[in-house]
Fold this sequence. Notes:
Mean pLDDT: 91
Number of helices: 2
Strand content: over 45%
Strand order of the largest sheet: 1-2-3-4-7-8-11-12-13-14-17
Shape: globular
Low-confidence stretches: none
Number of strands: 17
Oligomer: single chain
Amino acid sequence: LPKVNLTYKINDDALVYFTFSRGFRPGGVNRRGTLPPYAADKLDNFEFGWKTSWADNRLRFNGAIFQENWSNIQLSFLGLNGLSEVRNAGDARIRGVEFDFNWLPIDGLTLSAGGSYSDAKLITPFCKIANAAFDCSLPGSDGTANALLAPSGSRLPKTPQFKANGIARYEFGLGEGTTAHIQGVVVYEGNKIGDLRTAIRPIVGDLAAYTTADFSIGVKHGNWTAELFATNIFDVNGQIARGVQCGETVCGDPDGLTQSGGIFYTNVIRPRTIGLKVGTKF
């Protein structure tokens, strides 16, 4: 697997870089013997970025522009009798930009922000039975009928277009050998589509965007630290994924209920958590 990184240092406060890397997942055999094996998929990553410092290192701005070419995507979903099926879903392209910003306006206060935008979509049709031509009108190798499950240009599932975060942290002294900090964090994650397949997406539904907030206050004395924290302060039920106990057309409908009594199960982020952490180094 190749990986290449080129870095050019413009001066002591700025550099630019380019990275190319490749990853893959091996193919395998489906649990249901009537289905064909699935092939390996491959991801090529191209990234151009920069790292800069300003105002005597009190300001830092880093960023990157990237493109990922994903070939022969392996996609898993539930099939007959609740057995998972893995199919190759054609090719996709992911383009995006990301950045992080750090500022020290006064001694002890650090303000940070970061974000990313990703445009992830198919660049070939997703056929029920994959073939080298990406032509969903061609039958399978065993003569069975093919079908178009998602057209070229479809947005990839479980991938938010926008993500962002902001952090404010203030550190101050409380006496000889003792310091304290107060920190607040806000995180935003954009909406995600629930399924790549055109007919199944309305049944599964999309995963809504959400914003969380965390807060902490702590002290450090010598090798000892103590921190009181609260995560997900507003107890947001941010949705991570959604699944059902059998095929979506059997066990699901737009309301999440079916004649068989099955329902969708939505995985959400950790609820509001308040706690105390104490630690030491030795």
